[in-house]
Amino acid sequence: MPFFLKSFVKKTLVEYLNFYRVEKAMKCLEDPRIKIIDVASEVGFESPSYFINTFKALKLMTPTDYRKWIRAPDASSSGIGAESVTSPA
Questions:
Q1: Closest by alpha carbon to 9, among 17, 27, 54, 45?
Q2: Distance CA 33, CA 45 (A)
Q3: At a CB cut-off of 8 Å and minimum separation 6, what does 66 contact?
Q4: Exposed, middle or buried: residue 73 (CB in 10 Å: 0-12, 13-18, 19+)?
Q5: CB–CB of 39/48 below 8 Å?
Q6: Conformational region of residue 79, where left means phi above 0, alpha means psi within -120 to 50, and beta covers everything else
Q7: Structure confidence at residue 75 (pLDDT)
Q8: Quick one: pLDDT at residue 46?
Q9: What is the pLDDT of residues 49-58, one digit of tens each?
Q10: Average predicted confidence (pLDDT) for the chain
């Protein structure tokens, strides 16, 4: 099964799970009332520091920076939405 997954999505199981969890976290981070530590737990990360490091590796910014970026007035007026932030190829 792991070989099938890697050949299909070009990621290991852990890489895919982390990618999926970070994508879910991006939605949660849109609500400024939810603490980042709670976002990490909600999407399945046991360690907040591992969540932050994984998020930064995939999105090239920390969850805090991402939250600031999506809340910035120029982010919405420029036509660039949160969906534009993707993992590096």
A1: 17
A2: 19
A3: 26, 29, 55, 59, 82, 85
A4: exposed
A5: no
A6: left
A7: 62
A8: 95
A9: 999 999 999 9
A10: 84
77's tokens: 């007026």
- pLDDT value of residue 11: 80
Closest CA to 29 of 39, 21, 19, 42: 39
Which two tokens mark 24?
Answer: 């879910």
pTM over 0.85: no
Q: What's the burial of 56, exposed, middle or buried (CB within 10 Å: 0-12/13-18/19+)?
A: middle
pLDDT at 74: 73
Per-residue confidence (pLDDT) for residue 53, from 0 to 100: 98
Of 47, 51, 3, whose CA–CA distance to 26 is shortest?
51
Six-digit token string for 83: 């969906």
d(CA 70, CA 76): 7
